[in-house]
Design brief:
This protein has 374 residues and is α+β, with helices and mostly antiparallel strands. It is built from 10 helices and 17 strands. It starts with 24 loop residues before the first helix and ends in a 5-residue tail after the last helix.
Length: 374
């Protein structure tokens, strides 16, 4: 019998027991950039062959320094029998940190992250297909009615989001019995479960190579805009994991019809050649996405105002940060007029991150980004 018991707090296996006190927005962001979920995975990536018959046109890292993370991997299709000047983007979404609260919410967020990674890589949102990859504690133990309930809710979300986003699931895999029951050295009976996890993988059709834009800032004196769905939330965020916060156990409710419209609009902005760079906002929120955009070409940014904690670190679906040339601003704002849009600053010819109250040197950003995972 599946019995979902409702949202729970993550103290059992997720929440750090000794969270830090927040220092400042920028200093907190440096700490997050160095954390395992966000820092560079270059050592891991370089250990494996990420080329596919030499056809990769979207590499794992990009920019002049090859430091900045790409939104997705992109493979030229002509070499694999496809049309000339077309490509296939391959992206992922993973939000297992939300599963203790609600696996329905976790599944929604994983799907949206995968979709926005693909859209940010030039994929047509109407030509995306997905795969589900489950890693789950044993839902069939006598003590696992809640685990089975979590599995049911996760699959309900997959069905609902596939219908809403018009994205088919074409395959998947599952590992469903990741639980251990036994005894400790002191002969005490113990039970260990993995965290309910769902990785969403996706493929998106890129109709022209020109639709694959850099994730990094490309030049100084470009306008920076944030496009994202409200409400933002710190519940289950990277910031709430590492820093003290007064979390209210209230799962945010999103209008994913509007999220779908945002993805469509961002794709239209890309194909209309109205933006110069685009990066999705995910773990660590807007400020970590800005740090990542600075890395590739060492083009800094200056924000017009200080960010609140929620603005800087809030996480949610359908979130992007883009840069726009001055001579395209009017056309861009007109084309994006029906989605939540905020102009937040300008790119600068200096390798640093600036707000009215803080400045972080680019060398500190690189140092945090390169923090070894282990």
């Amino acid at each position: 019998v599946a019995e979902w018991e409702g949202p729970a707090t993550p103290e059992f296996w997720y929440r750090k027991s000794n969270r830090m006190k927040s220092k400042s927005i920028a200093e907190d962001a440096l700490s997050l950039l160095a954390s395992p979920n966000i820092c560079s995975k270059e050592d891991w990536v370089r250990a494996y062959d990420h080329e596919v018959q030499g056809a990769s046109i979207g590499k794992p890292f990009q920019g002049k320094t090859m430091e900045a993370p790409s939104n997705a991997g992109v493979i030229d299709l002509e070499m694999h029998g496809g049309k000339k000047n077309t490509a296939l983007a391959i992206g992922h979404g993973f939000s297992a940190k939300l599963s203790c609260y609600d696996t329905y919410w976790m599944s929604q967020m994983a799907i949206d992250e995968c979709v926005r990674n693909l859209v940010a890589s030039g994929s047509n949102p109407e030509k995306i297909s997905l795969l589900d990859n489950f890693c789950w504690p044993n839902p069939f133990l006598n003590t696992s009615k809640h685990r089975l309930g979590q599995l049911v809710r996760a699959n309900q979300a997959l069905n609902d989001m596939a219908d809403l986003y018009d994205v088919p699931f074409i395959s998947g895999k599952d590992s469903m019995k990741n639980s251990f029951q036994g005894y400790s050295k002191s002969k005490k009976k113990i039970s260990i479960d993995v965290e309910p996890s769902l990785l969403i993988s996706g493929m998106g059709y890129v109709e022209a190579h020109s639709h694959l834009l850099p994730s990094s800032f490309v030049s100084a004196d470009h306008n920076i805009y944030c496009i994202r769905l409200n409400p933002l939330s710190l519940l289950g965020s990277e910031h709430s994991y590492y820093f003290e916060s007064n979390d209210e156990l209230k799962i945010p409710q999103y209008d994913f019809i509007n999220a779908k419209a945002i993805h469509k609009t961002v794709y239209e902005l890309i194909t209309a050649n109205l933006i110069e760079s685009v990066h999705d906002i995910s773990d660590g929120g807007l400020i970590c996405a800005l740090f990542e955009k600075i890395l590739g070409n060492q083009i800094g940014c200056e924000l017009v105002s200080d960010l609140s904690l929620l603005e800087a670190f809030g996480e949610g679906p359908a979130a992007y940060v883009v840069s726009v040339k001055d001579d395209k601003v009017d056309a861009f704002e007109e084309a994006a007029s029906k989605v939540p849009l905020t102009k937040i600053g300008k790119t600068i010819n200096a390798f640093e991150f600036k707000t009215p109250s803080e400045t972080i040197a680019g060398d500190r950003i690189i140092s945090a980004w390169r923090t070894p995972i282990c």
